[in-house]
């Protein structure tokens, strides 16, 4: 793959500014270009994957972006290692950006994690980060606001927990 990449890198015409792309987006774009070059056909599947990654990153940015582990550590008054442990224990949601992770800002309320988020993430266990993010940022017709906004304003009630449990059960099938 590296040999193919180096052979075709010079004549690839990237249609986006690679400096503004995450490592994942850039890798997907380069991979797509190689497939198209070798096959002579645009791969719709790869275009859809790249578009999905782009839209997910846009969703995170529209919702305020993300903090690095060091920034979260400073915010919560803990070590970066403790932030990593919270991520591994699924007490914080992290989004991969290249070799590192970012922590979406919407999961924090001032200098603490949104109350009830840990329990809600437990209900969403088994779902992808994308699905969890879409659930939390999605506007709920019953609440007339996003679920994360509802959680911040009203706390975790049985109705919100049930909605998360239902989605988690659907995703586990």
> In what range is the share of β-strand residues?
5-15%
- Report Rg: 19 Å
Number of helices: 9
User: Unreliable runs, pLDDT <50, ≥5 residues?
Assistant: 10-18
Between the first and last Cα atoms, what is the distance in angstroms? 35 Å
Biggest β-sheet strands, sense, barrel: 3 strands, antiparallel
Helical percent range? Answer: 55-70%
What is the overall shape?
A: globular
Mean pLDDT: 83
How would you sum up this structure, described in words?
With 173 residues, this protein is mainly alpha-helical. It is built from 9 helices and 7 strands. The chain has helices spanning 2-9, 23-39, 44-62, 69-76, 80-88, 117-123, 129-137, 147-154, 158-172, and strands at 66-67, 95-97, 100-104, 108-109, 112-113, 139-140, 145-146. The strands form 3 sheets. It has a 3-stranded antiparallel sheet. Strands 4-5 form a two-stranded antiparallel ribbon. Strands 6-7 form a two-stranded antiparallel ribbon. A hairpin with a 2-residue loop joins strand 2 and strand 3 (100-104). Helix 1 (2-9) packs across helix 2 and helix 4 (69-76) crosses helix 5. The longest helix has 19 residues, at 44-62. The protein is globular and about 55 Å long. Mean pLDDT is 83; it is low at 10-18.
């Amino acid at each position: 793959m590296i040999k193919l990449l180096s052979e075709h890198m010079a004549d690839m015409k990237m249609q986006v500014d690679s400096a503004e792309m995450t490592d994942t987006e850039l890798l997907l774009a380069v991979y797509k270009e190689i497939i198209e070059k070798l096959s002579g056909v645009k791969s719709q599947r790869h275009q859809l994957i790249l578009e999905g990654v782009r839209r997910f990153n846009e969703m995170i940015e529209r919702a305020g972006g993300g903090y690095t582990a060091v920034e979260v550590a400073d915010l919560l008054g803990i070590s970066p290692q403790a932030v990593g442990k919270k991520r591994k224990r699924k007490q914080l949601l992290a989004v991969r950006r290249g070799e590192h992770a970012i922590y979406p800002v919407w999961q924090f309320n001032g200098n603490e994690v949104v109350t009830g988020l840990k329990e809600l993430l437990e209900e969403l266990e088994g779902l992808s980060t994308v699905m969890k993010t879409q659930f939390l940022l999605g506007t709920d017709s019953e609440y007339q606001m996003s679920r994360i906004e509802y959680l911040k304003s009203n706390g975790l009630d049985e109705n919100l927990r049930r909605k998360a449990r239902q989605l988690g059960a659907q995703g586990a099938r």
